[in-house]
Design a protein that fits this description.
The protein is of the alpha/beta class and about 375 residues long. The protein folds into two domains: about 30-145 and about 280-350, Rossmann fold, CATH 3.40.50; about 150-275 and about 360-370, Response regulator (Rossmann fold), CATH 3.40.50.2300. About 45% of the residues lie in helices and about 20% in strands. The chain contains 13 helices and 14 strands. It has helices spanning about 1-20, 20-25, 45-60, 80-95, 105-120, 150-165, 175-195, 210-215, 230-240, 260, 285-295, 300-320, 330-335, and strands at about 30-35, 70-75, 100, 125, 140-145, 170-175, 195-200, 225, 250, 270-275, 340, 345-350, 360-365, 370. Helix 3 links the parallel strand 1 (about 30-35) and strand 2. The chain is globular. The model is unreliable at about 1-25 (pLDDT under 50).
Amino acid sequence: MKKLFTLLLALVLVLSLFALPASAQSKGVIKLGGLAPLTGNYAEYGKGFQIGWQMALDEINAAGGANGYLLEIDVKDSQGDTVVSSTMATAFAEDEEIMAILGDFTSGACKANASIVDRYGVVQLSPTASAPDYASMSPFCFSIMGRQDGEAPYLATYVLKKYLGVTKVAVIRVDSDWGLSCFENFKVQADIEGLEVTEEKYKSDETDFSSIITKAKLSDPEVLVVMDQGAAVSAIFNAADSAGWDIKHVALGPGTSEQVVSQLMTPDNIIVTSPFFFDPQNAELTKWKEEFAGKAGFDPTVHPACAYDTMYLIKTAIENIGDGEITRDAIRAALQDVEMVGITGRIKFEPSGDIQRDYMICGVENGEWKVLEGFDYVNQ
């Protein structure tokens, strides 16, 4: 009996080894740095980044990690400020345990960090940087949002010329690197389409837009376009409404933001471009959207969905390294060759380190975002 008990005990111990949680069986931990504007004008998007990353990370680790490695991310608040972002990027880069950096949100911050990640040889994978010249600044710079030399011309041709059929446009844009990139790429195509465009700029910390609305009205445009993300978008459109200006509202940048809509005086009067939409007929996307909303307290835009996909891109890159040593440069090389279908669609990096996306037109009806029907969305 004693021998039988000893044998059974040994068997239980052996079986328990196979029942250990993934964390106890892992090859180790791969640490990542995260940059996101958790406070300030872009806090909705920063919080979305943080939750999107964590959702992916929890799934990956629960399934055994990336090729047996658990993933961790340390998310820092970049405040939407290029100097703060660069300081934090440097700290991550100097920490040899950080194998890659995810973020930041704005193109300006990502471009400010490009020389840093290049010097230290660490990947900066942004979910949302869309400046056409960002990814090409270093082999270590990547982004999956798509580029403004694709979206901004789409706004001119498909939203303004074909969908709305207007010829006179007033643009109010944030005075930032991203805002300049948006406008310049938009203006080239607007000239081709024969659109008459006037431009007004504002600083990112401005909150009173009454005077800029007065200036924009002088050209008697048919549509008002705002190029920015976050609270400024709704604040500018509200200023137009408060001035009694009955004009169509179009935005480039915020995507299908619930927080922007919730702050609008006339929420049904807005059209945006977007590379992605949560199709209510897609059960998988709907489940993801509901889980995100439960954690965030607001519905997701494309931005947290892209953040979620960036974590899976890192996972796939690590798996593609195989039995090789996990180094910063190995992650960079593997990431360049990754081809993956994420929740935002197919992702395959171009040699420059970014991707091209197709776009659609979204608007609000009865307080809810929807893809506007009856239109040819082919991006030519």
